[in-house]
Write a structure and sequence with these properties.
Blueprint: H1 22-37, E1 44-51, E2 57-65, H2 71-76, H3 87-161
Antiparallel strand pairs: 1-2
Helix pairs in contact: 1-3
Length: 162
């Protein structure tokens, strides 16, 4: 934000939303397509945490617009296909859905990563609480034992003095 604040067009916050739906990603995707058509930006990259396992989340950067293509696939597939309806009509419909799907995938990966982190944190907290309970139990038993020993010594000392 500090370095690239002038490039931020809009901030969308889902902090208060419990579950993010595909409709939310679709509205963002439609807005991204609209801004790209208005030439507000050249490249759109989404950043998210990819869930690997409960302990590991991998930061990812994925270019959404313009779509990245492999040069190898262009060379291998030199076939000609006919489309019904026209290719432009199909792409006009599919590309916004693809962008929305990629955004939703980022949301889901982030959510899975967050849940994994929470699970790990709660497991660590439970383990630490168990260790603390064990230490306190040992401490309590030692102090109780010391108090009982002190009382016994006082009783024995009093009996010997008589």
């Amino acid at each position: 934000k500090r370095d690239y604040g002038k490039y931020i067009i809009k901030k969308i916050n889902f902090k208060n939303k419990k579950n993010i739906l595909f409709d939310d990603a679709e509205s963002i995707g439609n807005e991204v397509v609209k801004l790209f058509k208005d030439k507000q930006f050249d490249i759109c990259v989404i950043f998210f945490n990819k869930f690997k396992n409960v302990m590991t989340q991998i930061p990812q950067a994925e270019q959404v617009i313009p779509a990245k293509t492999d040069d190898k696939s262009k060379e291998e597939n030199s076939f000609s296909y006919e489309f019904e309806p026209e290719e432009d009509e199909i792409l006009e419909d599919l590309l916004p859905k693809n962008i929305s799907t990629q955004i939703y995938k980022g949301f889901l990966e982030n959510s899975a990563s967050e849940q994994g982190s929470r699970m790990t944190a709660m497991d660590n907290a439970t383990r630490n609480a168990g260790d603390l309970v064990e230490k306190l139990t040992i401490n309590y038993n030692r102090s109780r034992q010391a108090a009982i020993t002190k009382e016994l010594i006082e009783i024995i000392s009093g009996a010997e003095s008589l």
